[in-house]
Amino acid sequence: MSQHPETKAIRLQTQQTGQKEHATPMFLTSSFTYDSAEEMGEAFADDTLDVNIYSRFSNPTVDEFIDKVAVLEGAEAGVATGTGMAAIFSTFMTFLSKGDHIISASAIFGSTHTILTKYLPKWGIEFSYFDMNKPDSIAALIKPNTKLLYVETPSNPGLDIIDIQAVSDLCKKHSILFVVDNCFATPAVQQPIKYGADIVLHSATKFIDGQGRVLGGVVVGKKDLIKQLYLFIRNTGPSMSPFNAWVLTKSLETLFVRMEKHASNAMHLAKALQNNSKLSWVKYPLLPDHPQYEIAKKQMANGGGILTFELKGGVEGGRKFLNALKMLSMTNNLGDTRSIASHPASTTHSKLTDEERTAVGITPGLIRISVGLEHPDDILSDIVQALEKS
Ligand SMILES: Cc1ncc(COP(=O)(O)O)c(C=O)c1O
Q1: pTM above 0.85, yes or no
Q2: Which residues lie with the beta carbon below 6 Å from any ligand 1 atom?
Q3: If you measure from the C-alpha of residue 75 to the centroid of ligand 1, how many angstroms do you get, rounded to a whole number?
């Protein structure tokens, strides 16, 4: 009997132990034992054997988490990492070599930008950026040594969206590996592999956890690609802890209902704030005036839990807005049950000049709201009263 993804997110579980536990067990162990020297010898001789040796290599709780994400993303296999950045860095290290070229959207998470601009060039890997709003510019950037194309859609924090199918078609034509960071959407909202992406990765720290507790990362894709990545992670060590995997696999049980509520709350706020006199604009993937609204409608089941707006009061307005909030949390994380407000220009991106910020899509009064699961009217009234003071 084929089951719906919502059911699989709940029911796919490690085989029950003799204790007859109902909730999935946690295998908090560093290593595993053998019945004989011969069995141990075999385990080490063949790294394709499906046997647990050491939790840097594999662990049943981590495997349950990986298997669920792979099923939800429509992927053959996966591998988990300690953080989202470890997932991204391991992917680059596995599939790029000295002399290769990577093409990336310029609208990407800050630490990913740092890897591309500061670290990869140290190892002889060059990069080119393109503007998510100008996908036609990608083709001209392709060179004989282009190996990988990287996007976040929707992007953090600008909520730019790209047509996954169109980019994938271009990548296939030129034998380029297409990697999508699906952190903002989650597989409950968008499955990039369905549209041709080769590899999908996540910061599981965000909506997958959903309650701001643990860090984690996960990468899924075809078996042969994941095998290469697995060997890199197994040997270099950015593996996921079984404790974090247990928290995250339990979180996946509620992912679908949470994402629907995050999205309906976000849509409620987006509509209510659209004509607020303190704002120049409001951006949300499923508002018809989002520049890529038609693409969002095609590839996303809902608009997700993040919305942004621009304060007319600029950088100073942003500071006043944050200080006036009574309920929303001031923190840099996102994807929590608790609504969070952040103002990149006065915090994470304060050291950049106005020109540098504009180049990465961060305007002076840009506020990012990670819309939580509180009652939407309570979130709205806190934002509205803080806007009055901005
Ligand atoms: C889109 C995106 N990718 C990757 C990361 C990095 O994830 P982590 O903080 O789990 O390393 C983040 C963190 O905010 C993110 O927003």
Answers
A1: yes
A2: 83-85, 109, 152, 156, 181, 183, 203, 205, 215, 217
A3: 21
